[in-house]
Amino acid sequence: MKSTILAFVSGLLFGLGLAISGMTDRQVILGFLDLFGEFNPQLVYVLAGAVVFTAISFRFVLRLPRPVFATGFQLPAATAVDRQLLLGAALFGVGWGLIGYCPGPALVGLAGGLRDAMIFVPAMLAGSFTHYLTDRRGKIGEE
Amino acid sequence: MGSIPITRSIHGNWGWHLNSWSNGLLGGALIGLSATLLLWSIGRIAGISGILNGLGSAPRSDRGWRAAFLLGLMVAGGLAIQFISHAPSRMQTGSTPMLLFAGLLVGFGTRMGNGCTSGHGVCGLGRLSWRSLAAVLTFVIFAMATVFTMRHLIGSPA
Q: How far is it, in rounded angstroms, from Cα B40 to Cα A66?
């Protein structure tokens, strides 16, 4: 129960962070990706804020013997840079560049009733499910 | 090259620049705090695509926290963008076939590559993972190349 509440609070913070920083506007994202046009550095600030935070905080958290409400840390086991990783990232990058939505902001946009997100998210779920079906090993590991 | 970088600055209802470095850093820190809370409390990585994918395929006992996290994300984010006037309009109109195609690629690619901007970006880089750094560089480069192609070679804005 406690872990469910904490996951919910964690989700609240994440959604608030995305909205406050402007990441839910896909034109802001496309602006960041448009190096040779109207470049918009906003995403750099957001990623910097987040990564500086986690780079410091994760060091302390991962020194604990275990999480507070679970038996162990579940970190991605894979460390190799393999074909799956790079091909997947490349396909994701093309989709991201076409429209400017990645999964988090798209889900927030759906919740906020944005028309584009309402079209994008079902297709995103279908794409994910397609990979699940074609890759019967059905990995769960998230990063 | 040749064009001057222009940062769009748009005032929100709250009377500050929502699209500014300070809001970026603040929002980023909140995202970092979220990922820290999740790791500290239940030992999980705050990667949106991974959490979402596991909702359908993880063991039943491993689904509750996923649903709770995503619910929180959508409640807070969905409400927040109602109160931010810079928030994208509901009428924002990307081409429907392009939205569908991009959605398929994002869903397929993030599952194949085991992560998206949050998992590989925020959490993976925070863990100093080389694998995640390789993923981030790959998707940013491909996304930039796609925008360049669409906007400057084909001339079709998304």
A: 8
In this complex, which of A37, A130, A143 lies closest to B132 when CB atoms are compared? A143
Query: Sign of torsion, CA B23 B19 A109 B54?
Result: negative
**Window B:89-118, CB contacts with A under 8 Å:** 89-94, 96, 98-118
ipTM, interface predicted TM-score of the complex = 0.93
Condensed to tens digits (0 to 9), the pLDDT of residues B3-50 reads 333 334 444 444 445 668 899 999 999 999 999 999 999 999 999 999
Q: Is B143 on the interface with A (CB under 8 A)?
A: yes
Domain ranges of chain B: 1-90, 93-158
Sequence-distant (6+) residues with CB within 8 A of B100 are: A119, A120, A123
Q: Which of A116, A129, A139 is the best substitution to test chain B (most B C-beta atoms within 10 A)?
A: A116
Q: How far apart (Å, rounded) are the C-alpha atoms in residues B72 and A86?
A: 31
- Is the pLDDT confidence value at B70 over 60? yes
Check if B155 contacts A (Cβ < 8 Å): no
Asked if the Cβ–Cβ distance from A91 to B105 is below 8 Å, we say yes
Nearest by Cα to A9 from B33, B123, B53: B33
Angle formed by the axes of helices A115-134 and A103-111, to 10°?
130
Buried b / exposed e over A18-40, threshold 16 CB at 10 Å, is bbbbbbbbbbbbbbbbbeebebb
Q: CA–CA distance from B125 to each of A30, A43, B7, B81 (Å)?
A: 22, 15, 26, 27
